[in-house]
Amino acid sequence: MKLDQIPFNIPFVAKNQLNSLSEVINNKKFSGDGFFTNKCSDLLQKIYKSKVLLTTSCTHALEMSALLCNISPGDEVIMPSFTFVSTANAFVNFGAKVIFVDIDKSTMNIDPVNIENAITKKTKAIVAVHYSGYTSNIEKIAKIAKKNNIFLIEDAAQAIGSYFKGKSLGTFGDFGCLSFHETKNIQCGEGGALIVNNESYYLKAEVIREKGTNRSQFFRGEVDKYRWISKGSSYLPSEFNAAFLYDQLKNIKLVTIKRNRLWDRYYKNLINLKNIKLPTYKKGALHNGHIFFIKVKNIYERSKLIDFLKKNGIQSVFHYIPLHESIKCKNYYSFKGLDKFTTIESQKLLRLPMFFDLSFRDVDFISEKIIDFYS
To answer: What local confidence, expressed as pLDDT, does residue 3 receive?
Structure first.
């Protein structure tokens, strides 16, 4: 890669991916739940030690979790405002009111203390978002959910290959939701998965995923006919997506190791630069190198740094605009407590290029330019 042209992201592509796509064509089975869908599910179930269903996106995995929780009008769902819009839409679409709470500024993840203060009789679920493949304290959040007899859903869109105290993120709650969008470590263009940690919900999840029918049971010979028995939608990815994803999943260790090494290189290069703040990860948390971000003084300095890096051939980006800043969606949410950190910290955050084919030389060049900017 030329050092004067460093994009923010290039999707990872494994070797021999065309062979798997050709196999789909030869098998003449293009719709979901074929050979490659089963292969992917098997691999994911080994990783997560739970039942896993492939979906067309993480958005749809979140929608499935909302249906499994029987989210209805009048229910409240607690989550951070610093997240992607799908985290909120998945529950708003079924009539819930979203209750945003403030984040832990050091991790950009939901603060468990704020969760407890936001729980009411209407609270149906908590959604913990694992921003940058990291958790602030998912164990504590799980205890809060259990104590109050409410569902815990993990938005683990960025967290494949991440762990907390040796346990995969996405397996602490009732349901975990993964993304295989092309911006993620492991990708198939568009795709996702639902991790069902409470097996009593698995058959219901199958039904929801198959348009509200027991079609999966019919194919297994467990019923003589399949019928419409529940709410649901078409959440199955095609065999082409699954075939592409299968080759990616086989490389998850390789991808995670390389990204973590790039992450460590950034950290080593920038740790002594006093003008910025770097991510801080607590003991027991093993992230997957999905994001490397820095925090600058304010939004104005960030804009100047983005322009400076762009002039030097480096694409850097900011991330989410907090969802509670959307005046047009005011009827769908409320913010419980003070916004001490969500808005101001999001305005400081800048994401640097991070992808599998990025070289250590690229990271050194980017780091050097950031240092130049401040000197």
So the answer is: 45
Are 53 and 35 contained in the same domain? yes
Residue 204 has which token pair?
Answer: 């219901």
Of residues 175, 150, 144, the one with CA closest to residue 68: 175
Rounded CA gap, 31 and 222, in Å? Answer: 21
Split the chain (375 residues) into runs of 10 and give each run's mean pLDDT: 76 93 92 93 97 98 98 98 98 98 94 96 98 92 98 98 96 98 97 96 96 88 89 95 97 97 98 95 88 98 98 96 95 96 98 98 98 96
DSSP assignment, residue 51?
Answer: E
**Residue 159 vs residues 140, 210, 307, 357: alpha-carbon distances, Å:** 18, 26, 30, 19
**Token pair of 92 as six digits:** 């708003």
Co-location of 190 and 304 in the same domain: no
Of the three residues 209, 233, 249, the one that is the final residue of a domain is: 249
Q: Distance between CA 109 and CA 172 in Å, rounded?
A: 16
Do 297 and 200 fall within a single domain?
A: no
Provide the H-helix boundaries in the chain. Answer: 17-27, 35-48, 58-68, 85-92, 112-118, 138-147, 202-209, 215-219, 239-249, 252-270, 299-311, 342-346, 360-374
